[in-house]
Amino acid sequence: MNKTVLIITSYFPPEIGAASNRIFQLAEGLHNANCNVTVLTPLPNYPTGKIFDDYKGKFTHQSQENGITVNRLWVYASNSKNKLLRLIAMLSYSFSLIWFFMWHKIPKTVIIQSPPLLVAFTSMLFLRKKNRTLILNVSDLWPVAGFELGALKKNFSYKLLEKIEHFNYKKASIILGQSEEILTHITSLYPDKTTFLYRNFPEFKAPVIEHHSESGTLKIVYAGLLGIAQGIYKLCNELDYSGLEFHIYGSGAEQNKIEAFISQHPELPIFFHGRVTREALHQVLMAYDVAIIPLLNRIYGSVPSKIFEYAHLGLPMLYFGGGEGETIIAKHHLGWIAEAGNYEHLNTVISTIKAEHISEERKKMIQKEAVSNFSFKAQMNRFKQLI
Asked: How many independent structural domains does the chain possess?
């Protein structure tokens, strides 16, 4: 008999970004492993903070997507910087979850995405039963990450979030962590907790790497969320543009500032291409020399999933975020590392990148390393045995 699995998440396609891609791949991987998969998620609204046009005016929406049942619930959508409005948005989804739990039969195996902490807390609180396996998928450590980003201060609210965080860990049957740092943090609190290192490996056929003519100009690309944590606006201000072009794909909170900066500095070789689908992005990325992966501040526990995605594309990386990501880049010879937050060092590292460092042969070596070490299928097989 096939196992039935419910996945509770705040992000899911057609929303863009690492979070929605990660959960979609998890759902699809379990489906391909002969599980009956249902996803519980809000009506799509990220990152715009507005319900997508196809879902406006709906309280709930159910669909079948690639063999997966997707239930979308009402949410008060907002990406406001006002903390109260953000809290109301999270609480609204929590209330929708409670309503769903009351009127639907919940399977014995449930995977719950965290953060957001409040959504995970709601699920843990209402679904905790001895005969149910609650699997907490921790992609970032909150409230620690919030403090390191400058979004939270160590006050009463922080202490409350810590209590919620610990409650979630305590009630989980199994905890998945996307990094060794996350699992180290959790086992320091609950040494006997069953944990599993679940990296955000991509699942797509590695493209054939073709030779591109050398223009003499280093083409650096950033693709992803244009949020505060990534610091792309500051990067635009700090890069030394002699001998390079900087290409940007994505959307987010800093988009208007970035577009305004480009408009005010037409002399700089910065190109903003907007948002494209993941499939289209894979094609356009192949034309660039180096992908930059920045974080404005080093975030404990964070390992950008872009590392594994770009490696499968054979795209050399320039990592500028500190932490465990540096270790992965260095261990697997995926590119260059610049000291987190040190823009002078970043520009120095860029100046050392030569044509022979981004050759077709080098890209093929990176891709081979990814296929050997970042296998989604092998990881999914191990995870399936665990649950």
From this structure: 2
